[in-house]
TrEMBL record:
GO terms for molecular function: NADH dehydrogenase activity; oxidoreductase activity, acting on NAD(P)H, quinone or similar compound as acceptor; quinone binding. This is NADH-quinone oxidoreductase subunit H. NDH-1 is composed of 14 different subunits. Subunits NuoA, H, J, K, L, M, N constitute the membrane sector of the complex. It is found in: Cell membrane; Membrane. NDH-1 shuttles electrons from NADH, via FMN and iron-sulfur (Fe-S) centers, to quinones in the respiratory chain. The immediate electron acceptor for the enzyme in this species is believed to be ubiquinone. Couples the redox reaction to proton translocation (for every two electrons transferred, four hydrogen ions are translocated across the cytoplasmic membrane), and thus conserves the redox energy in a proton gradient. This subunit may bind ubiquinone. Belongs to the complex I subunit 1 family. The chain crosses the membrane at residues 20-43, 89-109, 129-154, 175-198, 204-222, 251-273, 293-312, 332-350, 356-377. The keyword Transmembrane helix applies. Keywords: Cell membrane, Membrane, NAD, Quinone, Translocase, Transmembrane, Transmembrane helix, Ubiquinone. The keyword Transmembrane applies. It comes from the Bacteria. It catalyses: a quinone + NADH + 5 H(+)(in) = a quinol + NAD(+) + 4 H(+)(out).
Length: 438
């Protein structure tokens, strides 16, 4: 078993990095994210192609690996069109504001342990802040400003509707995302991403906090506007959403921001719940697998598993309605997150003040009380007289809760009379036609 660095060790180690080493890390992260984006576009098209029994890109380069590069070059040489009613400055700034926070979030993600680079001892991480988790949340929140400004500056109704949807979506799922992370912070005792990884040396938090992991996994899909939660880009309703009026490199920046955000949140999920760069069991039993450059393999392997789930969801699930999507966030994820957080905090306090036997006794009593309350409370349905009758107007409105309103007696008689007259007319016409034929 490799020794676990004490809290704050990574911060002090990175603080001594010379400027040229920090510059190398920045360039490596930037190039790495660009290459991962090109790979992810190819990977998504190939996986979805296999799911739909078609080959996917297989022409440009070996196995079609250069197809993403060809598409990127094609976008760069397309004509850059700006609508007449667009705000020129904001229309240009919005894509940049959307893509920059996605890159900045990678500055606090630990990719590996302590290594030697050109004779300098450093960690495979750009920087380690005492509030690293909050930096990731802040970057994901700032990115939505680019989407909102893009929809507003386009001067078109469809992009504006898509941007407003994205703002409401991020606000809703950011709450559930943050609440799921609080449980991790309680167990790790730190907001530093490096310390959270070190705290999982005895066990990954995906097994200790399964509810937090599931809520985080659902919320990260909603945060990145990916199917089945891609309501801001719903082409069946909004043509293309907030980037409808964008073309050429500006559209490519939105495309880049989406995929980099996918990789970023997948890396954050790996850091918080899957032990970060630590090798999975039973590989972790082999001496030396968590030292040197090997942890890069484990880290990106776990991240790729999350990215595969992104693609899997897109190829299998249909897009939700917007009301279903918001109901899932506000009425399910957030209440469950609050209850789970209270339970985790209570257990943490009990572990420090009570013995294991006392905790089991208290938990058993609480479970009996909850089950008894659930059995004793009768399920009372509202009386029929309290239900409001359906409103019938001359204006064609959709029925409430898919319940067809009952037709009034006078109208029912009139409709039945018209139907009888129509049938009689058809019968007479058919008889006349038959006599003519004879």
């Amino acid at each position: 078993m490799n020794p676990v660095p004490p809290p704050g060790y990574t911060q002090s180690l990175i603080a001594d990095d010379p400027f040229w080493l920090t510059l190398i890390k920045v360039l490596v992260i930037f190039v790495l994210l660009m290459l991962i984006t090109l790979f992810m576009i190819w990977f998504e098209r190939r996986v979805v192609g296999r799911m739909q029994q078609r080959p996917g890109p297989n022409w440009n380069g070996p196995f079609g690996l250069l197809q993403s590069l060809a598409d990127g070059l094609k976008l760069a040489f397309k004509e850059d069109i700006r609508p007449v009613l667009a705000d020129k400055a904001v229309f240009f700034i919005a894509p940049v504001l959307s893509v920059v926070p996605a890159f900045v979030a990678w500055s606090v993600i630990p990719l590996g342990p302590e290594v030697s680079i050109f004779g300098e001892q450093t960690a495979l991480q750009l920087t380690d802040l005492p509030v690293g988790v909050l930096v990731v949340l802040a970057c994901s929140s700032i990115g939505v400003y680019g989407i909102v400004l893009a929809g507003w500056a386009s001067g078109s109704p469809y992009p504006l509707l898509g941007s407003l949807r994205s703002a409401a979506q991020v606000i809703s799922y950011e709450l559930a995302l943050g609440l799921s992370i609080i449980a991790v912070v309680l167990y790790a005792g730190s907001l530093s991403t490096a310390d959270i990884v070190a705290a999982q040396s005895t066990g990954w938090y995906v097994w200790l906090l399964p509810v937090s992991f599931m809520i985080f996994a659902v919320s990260m899909v909603g945060e990145t506007n990916r199917a089945p939660f891609d309501l801001p880009e719903a082409e069946s309703e909004l043509v293309g959403g907030f980037h409808t009026e964008y073309s050429s490199l500006k559209f490519a920046l939105f495309f880049l921001a989406e995929y980099v955000n996918m990789v970023t949140l997948s890396a954050v999920a790996t850091t918080l719940f899957l032990g970060g760069w630590m090798a999975p069991w039973p590989l972790s039993l082999i001496p030396g697998v968590n030292e040197g450059w090997w942890p890069l393999l484990w880290f990106f392997g776990k991240t790729l598993a999350f990215l595969f789930v992104y693609v899997w969801l897109r190829g299998t699930l249909p897009r939700q309605r917007y009301d279903q999507f918001m109901r899932l966030g506000w009425k399910l994820l957030i209440p469950v997150s609050l209850v789970w957080l209270m339970l985790v905090a209570t257990l943490r306090v009990l572990r420090t003040e009570l013995t294991t036997g006392q905790i089991l006794v208290v938990g058993g009593i609480a479970l009996v009380i909850l089950v008894g309350a659930a059995l004793l409370i009768p399920d009372q349905a509202p009386p029929e007289e309290d239900k409001e009758p359906p409103v019938i107007t001359d204006y064609p409105v959709p029925p409430l809760d898919l319940a067809v309103p009952e037709t009034p007696k006078r109208r029912r008689r009139a409709v039945a009379g018209k139907r009888d007259d129509q049938q009689a007319t058809e019968t007479v016409g058919a008889g006349t036609s038959g006599e003519g034929d004879r």
